[in-house]
Structure formats: structure tokens, C-alpha cells
From TrEMBL:
It comes from Variovorax rhizosphaerae. It comes from the Bacteria. Pfam families: Amidohydro_2. Residues 52-311 form the Amidohydrolase-related domain. Signal peptide: none annotated. This is Amidohydrolase family protein.
């Protein structure tokens, strides 16, 4: 299991002290961030109100579902604030990890710890969730429901059809983690959903075919309908060409050029799928390659997230 192969927070910080000669994770001025390689800051400055639209918290006090495919040691608000100080982002969107099934406790408590004005949440819910529970979660800052169909188990794509009208009435979106190869078969369902749609990790388009793939063409058609957004995140999920991921970067550039008004960005911290953690400064700087114009990056980092996640004006 991933959990068995990762350094926990204390081991990671001790490594930073012993090997890098730094003062441990508590000394955030040194640039040490749990579950992130390197200590350098990005070369690209984050604009005011910059939003990380995809990150997770983990808490060992909360039980995980049996057979959870992706586990991780504790990754909590103090650790993530160290990330924000290093990278320069100010707002965040917490996504309930697949490890917890439909238990959104860690995400909800994480939003409270980060602060209502600067955090939003994406829950995992079944279609039979009560109206009262949706209203409660809305009050707490949740603005979407995730359907993880890669690390599948808690929900199915058919439940999205049932839940989408209720979410549309609340201004919420449905977030899909779906392999790009499945997009053509799912187009009829996805195209008929009345709620907004957000795709994780560049739609998980197969990089061997890239923009010529059937999945990319479907993703573009959904974007052009006007209610679909894509997260420019997780290049390492499809590419092994670290640290610049040129094949994933080619896809990200194409998406950002085609529809900058439909793109948001996410760090995927603490990179739960990755045994070797990436350098988050490098990950953030990739956006400057994907969207070279500062005005476009501001749109991706500030304006689009404010619309999708209902953040107040910065």
C-alpha cells in the first residue's frame, strides 16, 4: 500500500533536518514542506487570491474504507500552510480522498482549520443524500461532489445523473476523475447533466494520442457547451517524464490555449499517489509554461476559481 512506503510527517521533517541541514517542518521560513521535494520557491509569482483547486488532507484518526487503493500518512492544515507560504497561493479547495469513501469529516474539518473565507470543499456523496445534508455542507463551504471512477468504489457514474439536477439548483458542480479513454462512451450522460462539470487532472487524456484522441475531442465538446471546467493538475498521473512532463505539458498548453476561461489549477498536494514526491515549486512553475501570459494565469488561478467555487472577491 502507498501508506506503507511513504515517509510520515515526522520522518519527512527529520530527513529535511538531517540531510538538508534545515530546521525541520516547523521552520517554514526554510522552505521545508511535508510531502514536497526541494526547498526552493517558484520562479513565477502567484497573484493575489491565487487558488489551489485540488488538494487533500489525511488524518489517521478517521477510519479509511476497507481495501482503499490510495492511503497516506497525516497531512493537515499546519503542513499545508507551509506549502502556501512556500508557493504563494492563498486559497484552497479540499477534496475528500477516495480512502474515506463517503465520509467527508477530514475535508470538512480541514475547511474549518483553513478558514471559511479562503477554503472550499468537494465532497463524496451518494445520490440518496438528504436535502438537509446538502444544505448543511453548503453552509460549511462545500460546492461540489466528486465522482472518482479511477480509484472507484464509493460512487458510480450512474448516480451522477440522479444527483446532478439537485446540485444544479444549489450552484454546485460534479467533479469527475475519469480516464480519458472512457469519455466517448460517457458523452451522452455527461452532455445531459444540468449541473456544472469539473474534470480532474486534465481529463486524464491518454498522452500517446494527446489532442488527436477521441477523449480529447469529447472533452473539447463538453468545454464548448459552456458548463465544463478542467483542472490543470497531476501531470505525473499520466506522464513519467519528470520533472517537466513535456507530453503532459503539451496537453495542458492545448487546453489553456483553447479555453482559458474554463481552466483552473491544482497542486494535488500531498501527492498521495506518488512514492517519490515532486518539487512543488517546479509543479507551480509549469503553469507559466502552460499559460505564458500573466493575465491568463490570473484568470486560471483567481477569476475562474472564484466563479466555480463561489469565493468572495479578493
Amino acid at each position: 500500500m502507498v501508506q506503507d512506503t511513504l515517509l510520515d510527517r515526522r520522518q519527512f521533517c527529520a530527513l529535511g533536518t538531517a540531510v538538508l541541514g534545515l530546521g525541520g517542518c516547523a521552520a517554514s521560513a526554510d522552505g521545508v514542506v511535508p510531502y514536497s521535494a526541494g526547498v526552493d520557491r517558484p520562479k513565477t509569482a502567484a497573484p493575489a487570491g491565487a487558488t489551489d483547486c485540488h488538494m487533500h488532507f489525511f488524518d489517521k484518526r478517521v477510519a479509511t474504507v476497507p481495501g482503499a487503493p490510495v492511503l497516506h500518512p497525516d497531512a493537515l492544515a499546519p503542513d499545508y500552510r507551509a506549502y502556501q507560504r512556500r508557493i504563494g497561493t492563498q486559497r484552497c479547495v479540499l477534496v475528500t480522498p477516495s480512502a474515506y469513501g463517503t465520509n467527508n469529516q477530514v475535508m470538512v474539518e480541514g475547511m474549518a482549520a483553513m478558514g471559511a473565507a479562503v477554503s472550499r470543499g468537494v465532497a463524496v456523496l451518494r445520490a440518496d443524500v438528504s436535502d438537509a445534508e446538502l444544505r448543511r455542507l453548503h453552509t460549511l463551504g462545500v460546492r461540489g461532489v466528486r465522482f472518482n471512477l479511477v480509484q472507484a468504489g464509493a460512487v458510480t457514474i450512474d448516480q451522477a445523473r440522479l444527483l446532478s439536477p439537485r446540485l444544479a439548483d444549489m450552484g454546485w458542480h460534479i467533479q469527475f476523475h475519469l480516464l480519458g479513454e472512457r469519455l466517448p462512451d460517457a458523452y451522452e450522460l455527461l452532455g445531459g447533466l444540468p449541473s456544472r462539470i469539473v474534470f480532474d487532472h486534465m481529463g486524464r487524456i491518454p498522452l500517446a494520442e494527446g489532442t488527436s484522441s477521441a477523449g480529447y475531442q469529447v472533452l473539447r465538446r463538453l468545454i464548448d457547451k459552456g458548463n465544463t471546467w478542467v483542472k490543470l493538475s497531476g501531470p505525473y498521473l499520466s506522464s513519467t517524464q519528470a520533472p517537466q512532463y513535456p507530453n503532459a505539458s503539451a496537453l495542458a498548453k492545448a487546453l489553456a490555449k483553447a479555453a482559458p476561461e474554463r481552466m483552473v489549477w491544482g497542486s494535488d498536494w500531498p501527492h498521495a499517489t506518488e512514492k517519490t514526491k515532486p518539487n512543488d515549486a517546479v509543479i507551480f512553475d509549469l503553469l507559466a509554461d502552460w499559460a505564458p501570459e500573466a493575465s491568463v494565469r490570473r484568470r486560471i488561478l483567481v477569476d475562474n476559481p472564484a466563479k466555480v467555487y463561489d469565493f468572495p472577491a479578493p
